[in-house]
Amino acid sequence: RAIILEFAARGANVIINSRTNEAEARGVEQEAQALGAKTLVVMGAAGELNAQLGKWPRVRITPMFGRWGYFVGDQLFACFPLRTKDTDLWIRLTPEEQKRAVLVPGFTPHRRFAARGWVECEVETSRDVGRAIRWLRRSYDAVIQSVEREERRSR
Predict the structure, then answer these.
(1) Strand partners, 41
(2) pLDDT tens per residue across span 75-98
(3) Cα–Cα distance for residue pair 95/115, rounded to 1 Å
(4) Mean pLDDT computed over 69-76
(5) How many whole angstroms separate alpha carbon 71 and alpha carbon 9?
(6) HEC profile of the chain
(7) What average pLDDT does range 11-30 have in this prediction?
(8) What backbone phi and psi angles, to 5 degrees, belong to 43?
(9) Mean pLDDT rounded to a whole number for the chain
(10) pLDDT band at residue 19, thresholds of 50, 70 and 90?
(11) Pick from 55, 153, 142: which is nearest to 94 by CA?
(12) Neighbours of 155 (CB within 10 A)
């Protein structure tokens, strides 16, 4: 709460993540708006995913086309719906990892982008978040390696 309000007081727009306490999140939102900030409240599994992935080095989380986009540099490695009633997490994996992931119950090839390495799974609970984090980490590691290779080439 204090960090969000400090950023709002300094002129930043803020995103308020909360797993379950919407009333408290809305209260912080009102305080931040009173300080002139634009705000967005994120509830449920999206809030938990954003909080965890936001701690990873170089991860940028950006709303895009009705989903949270999880990026390293300009490379998208996962996305999750903005709307709390939608729960389909999309993760881009290497071909080898994609083959492994679809053997795990609850993971399926993405309905449109499977040929590009994407899988999807439902994330509704904290347990689901924990299960997904393992695969998100694999995706993130592959993207970090790719970004770092590209940075070395461009030096």
Answers:
(1) 16
(2) 999 999 987 788 999 999 999 999
(3) 9
(4) 96
(5) 27
(6) CHHHHHHHHCCCCEEEEECCCHHHHHHHHHHHHHCCCCEEEEEHHHHHHHHHHCCCCCEEEEEECCEEEEEECCEEEEEEECCCCCCEEEEECCHHHHHHHCCCCCEEECCCCHHHCEEEEECCCHHHHHHHHHHHHHHHHHHHHHHHHHHHHCC
(7) 81
(8) -115, 165
(9) 91
(10) low
(11) 142
(12) 4
Q: Which two tokens stand for residue 87?
A: 């729960």
Instruction: Report pTM.
Output: 0.76
Residue found by looking up tokens 């990026």 in the block:
71
pLDDT-derived band of residue 50, with 50, 70 and 90 as boundaries? confident
CB atoms within 10 A of CB 127: 9
Amino acid at 125: T
Amino acid at 112: R
Buried b (16+ CB within 10 A) or exposed e, 104-121: eeebebbeeeeeebbbbb
Residue 109 tokens read as 């090839």
Confidence check: pLDDT of 113 > 80: yes
